[in-house]
Amino acid sequence: MRASLLQIAADEDEPVDSRRRRVAALVREQAGADLVVLPELWTTGAFAYESFGSGAEPLRGPTYEVMAEAARDAGVWLHAGSIPERGDAPGGGEGPLYNTSLVFSPDGELAAAYRKIHRFGFDKGEAVLMAAGADLVTVRLPETTIGVATCYDLRFPELFRGLVDAGAETLVVPAGWPERRRSHWTLLARARAVENQAYVLACGTAGTHAGVPQAGRSIVVDPWGEVLAEAAGADEEVLTVEFDPARVARTREQFPALKDRVLGLDAPRRPEPSRS
Questions:
Q1: Is 151 assigned a catalytic role?
Q2: Which of 57, 116, 169, 230 is catalytic?
Q3: For 177-196, what is each residue's pLDDT tens digit?
Q4: What pLDDT sits at residue 275?
């Protein structure tokens, strides 16, 4: 199976319509790949918080239309990264914002949409500007089942356990990960691969977003935690790798750690205060 990760920059001086056309052309150049992956919030920039509202679009908006056509023209499964989605409001009006990933089939149909569950920023930025998703999302491809997560989700292993329980064998993670925490990006991608005995395809953004240098370093990790391919740095790059989806089943059979999971453990009780 061949996957291409497109490490795209979100330059604020590039009009978003021009970027959509440019990225669509790059997707078309990947004809012959089985899966193409774009980064998180590449239409606005993951740290361009002030642009989330003005750059928001409905699920089936301009990015949807351009990416559906590109997937169809290239004949590829396309994880089109994520967009700031403006959801519907009950009774009309302006609905909440979501950080929403779009996955297209080779015929250009929307196969899945995932609203990011873990929003970054603590008490600012994405964490307060965007609503949280609630659903785990997997997509069955002919060669493998992908589990969909986004950026900050990478820090929460229970989400990935849920995806594996839902059948995921390949974990796809678009991100806008900052350079200052680049070591965490590589470490966590490898950890999620090892603990879930799954492939991890993690596609980062290039350049600088709203003054925040990006890590880049898109990476593909196999079920043993070995790095199959990694982008050279933080510049725009197409990272293409061949991998064998059947290796997931072989790894899980050879080293069946997942069957030894112990679920439903109770939290430890706090000791009772002394009354003496």
A1: yes
A2: 116
A3: 999 999 999 999 999 999 99
A4: 67
- Please give the span between the terminal C-alpha atoms of the chain, in angstroms, as a whole number: 68
Both tokens of 141, joined, read 């491809």
Cα 6 to Cα 174: distance, rounded to the nearest angstrom? 10
C-alpha to C-alpha distance for 106 and 242, rounded to whole angstroms: 18
Find where tokens 């970027």 sit. 19
Rounded Cα distance, 49 and 94, in Å: 18
The SS3 call for residue 176 is coil
Task: Please state the length of the chain.
Answer: 276
To the query of whether residue 116 is one of the catalytic residues in this protein, the response is yes
List, for residues 40-56, the tens digit of each pLDDT value. 999 999 999 999 999 99
Find, among 228, 170, 173, 214, the residue nearest to 196 by Cα: 170
Give me the catalytic one of 57, 85, 126, 151: 151
Q: What's the whole-model pTM score?
A: 0.95
Which of 119, 75, 115, 73 shows the shortest CA–CA distance to 95? 115
- Given a contact cutoff of 8 angstroms between Cβ atoms, the answer to whether 27 and 78 are in contact is yes
Q: Is the sign of the CA dihedral 104, 207, 125, 118 positive or negative?
A: positive
Q: Which domains does the chain have, with CATH numbers?
A: 2-256 (3.60.110.10)
Quote the CA–CA distance of 195 and 192 in Å, as a whole number.
5
* The pair of three-digit structure tokens given for residue 158, joined into one six-digit string: 């229970």
Both structure tokens of 26:
């790059």
